[in-house]
Fold WG repeat-containing protein.
Amino acid sequence: MPKLIKKILPPLIIILACIIIIFIGGPKKTKKEVEPLTPLVFQSSTNHLYGAVDTKRKVIIEPKYKTLFAKQLDGEYYFIGTTESNETDIMTDEGKILDRVPSNYVNVSVLSLKDKLLEVSNNTNNFVGVINFENQTIIPMKYNTLSFKNDFLILNPLSNESIANKNGKILVSSKDYSSVTIEDNGIVVTNKKGLYGLLDFNGNVVLEPTYNNIHGVYGNIFAVGNNNGNYALYNLVNRNFISSFKYTYIQKEAKSSPFLACKVYNGVSLYGYVDSRGSTVIPFEFQSGYAFTDNYAIVQQNGVYGLIDKSGNFLIKPKYTIIPGNAYAIESFQNGNYYVGYLDNKSYIMNSNGEVIADVPGVVQTISNKTVFYQTTDNKDFLYNLNTKKTMSVNLYLMPLSKGTLTPDGYFGAYKNVSKSKFVNSMYLYEEGKGIISQNGYNSIKFENGLFICKSEKRYDLLKPDGRVLISFDPVNILNISVTPDGLIYVQKVNPAIGNRMHATVAEQQNTRLISLYNIKGEKISFEK
């Protein structure tokens, strides 16, 4: 008997432990919360003024502004609101007032939160200037337009541009040059004769305006062109040329190194890639080339195209050709998850390693996850599933949906074919394997945080992923509808009392928006106490 107890006791203990865990509930599972990404403005239903909630949907600005906007600058959110006495408040994303701009300034906008700079104008003319958060004048209001780039103010008077630093000191005057362009690391100017020169960010002349062309290439490197049409590379920091005038082309504003350049060998133009030291890192052996994108570049060799990495190694060996209607012989889909090469009226679909995984007899229009939509030379449309390897004929014209948040796999906008080559103007929501799932056609369809936002001249619908209508709006006077990550439907309307009248007063223009909020069930909600 004791032996029998010893034999069955361990399994019994395990069973009892499992029962206890089941009844107690086991380890607590915390529900993953969806963090809202942006603060929101709401409109009071009582005084019709505007307030705001933070990303936790807590009221941080009571509804007391005639206009209120939540904006983003350099990755930082802030609010800008107009009081009933026409002052302008600049506030943090928590509702703290950074500056109150007097009512004699209008059309206030933030140029830099870090540097505390505001663009302003007045009611007497259309000229603009700059003040700081202490409402001190940095740039007088005498310019047509202005902008802020690379810590410099670009000022546009009635003619040419001037450059000032953020303290208001004019570094480059329009009186001296015909044009002024701020590059990432220097200032390119042209004189009255149309010749190019180069200045540093202190306004000092680095290269006198005696050249036919100058443009930024990458970092501190500039391409300088002479009167023979040839280019050399110039290092602005070291103040020296790092190559001779041996290039006929050098890429503009490269996002990375190496960058594309062209030389002539025995009367033949050949392309290669050069780094920021002026060294050739990929030989000049291509008939043509393109800039690097996602660490790969398309090159042409012996009349056909391939794809190389930054070491010059082929991910895809040259074999593909440009077909009529396409700009490239090789195209990237889904940020490099797939590549498609074209050859002999076929599309060869490759994975991210450049390996061919399928081919279809036509031109690929788009790839939605594992679904390939392609069109044959006789304008017939098909869907091909990379998993099942099945092809389905579609008597529709499919297209990718408008860019919103990530669209679920297998959804397209679909235009119905009413004749051999004529399609109706309305776009329907199409799901692979089910066909058209929306009852109505629309001018645009966009997926945003779990819902399809569908707009036509007659209706503004929010559809669930199965095509059913969650909520409908009359499109008259609606400016925009968006869905937040935590499921709030944000509806902005034009005030019907003002509408889009061309001759509305400034005060009327400041009160053109009506904002309503709905939950994911389509019920109207309010943040008022």
